[in-house]
Every structure is written in C-alpha cells, then in structure tokens.
Amino acid sequence: MIAIAILASGKGSNFQSIIDAISEGGCDAKIKVLISDRPYAKAIERAEKNRIPVELVLRKNFDTREQMDSHIYGILESYGVELVVLAGYMRIIKGKNLLKGYENRMINIHPALLPSFPGMNAQKQAFEYGAKVSGATVHFVDSNLDAGPIIMQEAVDISDCKDSEEVASRIIKIEHRIYPKVVDMFSKGRFRFNGRRAIYVRD
Ligand code: GRF
User: Fold this and answer.
1) Is the CB of 137 within 6 Å of ligand 1?
2) Does the model's pTM come out above 0.85?
3) 110 an active-site residue?
4) Is 141 exposed, middle or buried (0-12, 13-18, 19+ CB in 10 A)?
5) Residues sharing a CB contact under 8 Å with residue 172, sequence separation 6 or more, in sequence order
6) What Å distances lie between residue 64 and 14, 67, 100, 198, CA to CA?
7) Which atom of ligand 1 is nearest to the CA of 168?
8) Residue 105: how many CB atoms within 10 A of its CB?
9) Which of 2, 55, 109, 122: CA 20 to 30 A from 83?
10) Which residue's alpha carbon is nearest to atom 10 within ligand 1?
11) Can you list the residues of the chain whose pLDDT is less than 70?
C-alpha cells in the first residue's frame, strides 16, 4: 500500500476515480490528504464525504510561490506521503524543495498525448488543430510545464467529434481508467530511467 496525497483545484473527478478504485480493490493506496488552493473546489466536498483530511493552501497567504510550495512540502512530509498525485491542480510547481523532495514521486495527468498540446484547454487545442487522435498522458512532474518523463498514455479517435466538449468527454473516460492504474503501479513497483524513458520494474 502506498501513501498518497492528491492536489486538486477543481472538480476532482480524477480524485474521485482514485477513491472509487481504492474502495473497489483496484488501487492499493491510501489517500492521506487532499491539498487544494481553492476553498470552493468540488474536490473538497469529495474529500469530506470520504473522511479524507483537507489542507487548504491559499496563494494569498504567501509572499512567493516558492514559500507556498515549501509549505505544501511540509504538509506532505507531515502526512508521510510517498507519492504526490496532481489531479487538476492549476498551479505550476515552482518550489525547489518540493520538486527535489518528491523527484520521481510526483505525477500529473494531462488531457492530450504529450508532447502535443501542453498547457490549458488541451482538448480544445487538439480539436481546433484538427487532430484525428488525442488521448491522455500520465507523466512525472518536473520544473517544466507538462514535460516530465511519460509514464502511461492512451489514445482515442476524435476524428468524428463535433466539438471540443465531445473530445473532452472521450478523454476524461480514459483519464479515470488510467490514473488509478498508474497509482497502483507505484504501490507494486518503481520506475528506473533510461534517458527520458521511464521503465517500470515490478517489485
Ligand atoms: C483533467 O482533464 C486533467 O487531465 C487536467 O485537469 C482536469 C481535471 O479534472 N489536468 P478533474 O478535476 O479531475 O475532474
């Protein structure tokens, strides 16, 4: 069993998919804490409903992002977190001690096949670009936006989508399936690196 923290700013449907997979026995993890930077995030309701501790970390209470991330690092340490799972966390992690302290132990999910369409509104970017295929990517978090080594990807045909909402609804289904799977992989093994290639080794 791996001790994880979720960082979320919004709806928290990926957070929910991990809660559900844990309760169904498909993900061997314990969610120690939800950290959010938005007091009204729906993710907070989900945590409360499932008796998961919530830590609100508001940007306005810190002079710099470095200080904010340092505070988050302290929270993660105090809960004994082994893996940090970003799930719709809308801030770029800048703090050096957080990035270093959780190097190769912090993951994110992105609604496109990276390195295509990084950043905001990836589903809309893919639709407007005219891409025929898009998907979801789980990757390690490093100091660059949506650019850490890739852990898992799954593609979906979007050639017949009528708008970007339809693209988003196909991709989110993939996200909900693969994110808990990746968390479970961390509980049963680890990754080693060959350059940028993350290679999974089961314990
Ligand atoms: C997801 O599309 C995820 O890929 C992106 O932010 C969105 C979060 O959705 N990073 P939710 O809050 O998990 O519903």
Assistant:
1) no
2) yes
3) yes
4) buried
5) 13, 111
6) 28, 5, 18, 32
7) 2
8) 18
9) 122
10) 88
11) none
